[in-house]
Amino acid sequence: MQSWRGARESSIYHTCQTHARTNQLTSFLAWLAADSSRRSALYFASDSRVTLEDGSHRDDCIKLFCPMSSPDIFAMVGYIRFPELALPAICSEIDGSLMPKELTTASHRIDWVSTRLKAMKETQPGGGTFVIFHASRDAHAELSTFALTRHRYDSADGAWVREDYDLYRSDSHAIECDGTGGVFIINSIGPVTFKIGEVSRAYFQAFCKALKNPNGDSASWGRPSAPRTRQRRRRAPLWCTDRLW
Questions:
Q1: How far is residue 237 from each of residues 206, 227, 234, measured CA to CA in Å?
Q2: For residues 80 and 130, is the Cβ–Cβ distance under 8 A?
Q3: Could you tell me the sign of the dihedral formed by the alpha carbons of 134, 233, 202, 62, in that order?
Q4: Paired strand residues for 225
Q5: Cα separation, 232 vs 109, whole angstroms
Q6: I want to staple 106 with a disulfide (CB 3.0 to 4.6 A). Which of 1, 147, 174, 236 is the partner?
Q7: Could you tell me if 210 and 27 are in contact, meaning their C-beta atoms sit under 8 angstroms apart?
Q8: What is the pTM of this model?
Q9: Is the Cβ–Cβ distance between 29 and 45 less than 8 Å?
Q10: Helix axis angle, 106-122 to 83-95, nearest 10°
Q11: Half-sphere exposure (CA, 13 Å, Cβ side) for 214?
């Protein structure tokens, strides 16, 4: 019997192997869920480990955030001191109606968040390199379209780099892996999708498998969390399954 690699070359193996980052401490996965008629949800999954400068760690860090009143979700990777303060503040500003009401599309919301993050960082100099993911949704009757952006701040030169993802595919698929655990996620996805198919639950199952790997990434541990957000939904607790739909 052919292996999963021999039977087919999984799209995730090409996409996420290309983009997996090896210098940011965490495990992160973003994937799109689709049914037979439409793209239905966009998920984030992350671990909960924080590795401290002295090499010690704790496993209770919230790395995924969502406002209660807007279809947006956020994730952080890398040096967390700035994003772990900025992202809850961004969510509070959105819920406090501080985001202009005319910003009704996903692209407008992402632009506004990008501007706010840069302004916040100017008031908090120092720190290390980090990445913030922002996903957002537009609703069109019974259909939804999704947007995903990666904001990277480089502490070496103070530069921001923005990457907007082309979410053109209509099937369930992994969009991005990031962090030191990225390669372990990639290696888990292929066998799982070969066994049960490229369905949404396969990606979270593969993520959990990578996190439980005793020979996996030592900087990624704790219970996996995969929050989703939807309009007018309360903030998801740390250990849950949730989505942007």
A1: 21, 8, 9
A2: yes
A3: positive
A4: 46
A5: 16
A6: 147
A7: yes
A8: 0.84
A9: yes
A10: 130
A11: 0
Tokens of 164: 């907007």
**20 touches 178 (CB < 8 A):** yes
Q: Which tens digits make up the pLDDT trace of 108-164?
A: 999 999 999 999 999 999 899 999 999 999 987 778 899 999 999 999 999 999 999
From CA 26, how far away is CA 38, in angstroms rounded?
31
pLDDT digits (tens, 9 = 90+) for 22-78: 456 688 999 999 887 788 899 999 988 877 777 777 788 889 999 999 999 999 998
As a whole number, mean pLDDT of residues 87-106 equals 93
User: 32-39: long-range contacts (C-beta < 8 A, 24 or more apart)?
Assistant: 32/146, 32/167, 32/169, 32/172, 32/173, 32/175, 33/172, 33/200, 33/243, 34/170, 34/171, 34/172, 34/200, 38/142, 38/143, 38/144, 38/170, 39/144, 39/145, 39/146, 39/167, 39/170
CB atoms within 10 A of CB 97: 9
Give me 13's structure tokens: 């193996």
